[in-house]
Amino acid sequence: MENVSSPLVKAIEQTWRAIQRRHNDVPEVVVTLASGTSARGMKFGHFAADRWLRGEDAIHELFIGGEGLARGGVGTIGTLLHEAGHAAAAARGIQDTSRQGRYHNKRFKVIAESFGLTLDHDSSIGWSVTTVPDATAALYAAEIRKLDAAITAHRRAEMTGAGGRTSNNNGKAAECSCGRKIRASVTVLEAGPIICGICGEEFEPEEAGE
Description:
Elements: H1 5-22, E1 29-34, E2 37-38, E3 41-42, E4 45-54, E5 57-65, H2 72-92, E6 97-98, E7 103-104, H3 106-114, E8 118-122, E9 126-131, H4 134-139, H5 141-150, E10 172-175, E11 181-184, H6 186-191, E12 204-205
Parallel strand pairs: 1-5
Antiparallel strand pairs: 2-3, 4-5, 6-7, 8-9, 10-11, 10-12
């Protein structure tokens, strides 16, 4: 049987290098592939700073959710450019997200648009809804072809919540800036802010993000 993961990781790494050639402050990363399904929803990818060690040197992580590969090469390069925007923000010392990295602010919008993406706003996750315009797809046409050729499989999405694999009657999860978590009904969460007594920040409902 044809190997699935090796050609895919190679195509992702080659695409990342193509992005680096156009944006020289995008750093090196270690590519990881796994499930993007969680209680928060579907995650197509993430950039996480300093998650790996090579000797004494820290290397950043680029995670790609296997379910998102079903969108093909264009959708995948949208994820890669999105995460490259986060990587560039980290390199520049720019705080581009809040709410434990879920809410994408206008600083991220500016960076992502400079990388050739179109960003739409979502009330829960901010400027995170990513589209690859035709001009950007044309710019990365060679990389998209390689990704399409390498994506020979994608991960099945897992069902969570009502009617799916897991469900509960404990309300909706919310988290504050210091990482404490609570559960409360949607009615309670929508009634007004719930403030953490340690960090003084509002508990925010956990939402899906890219």
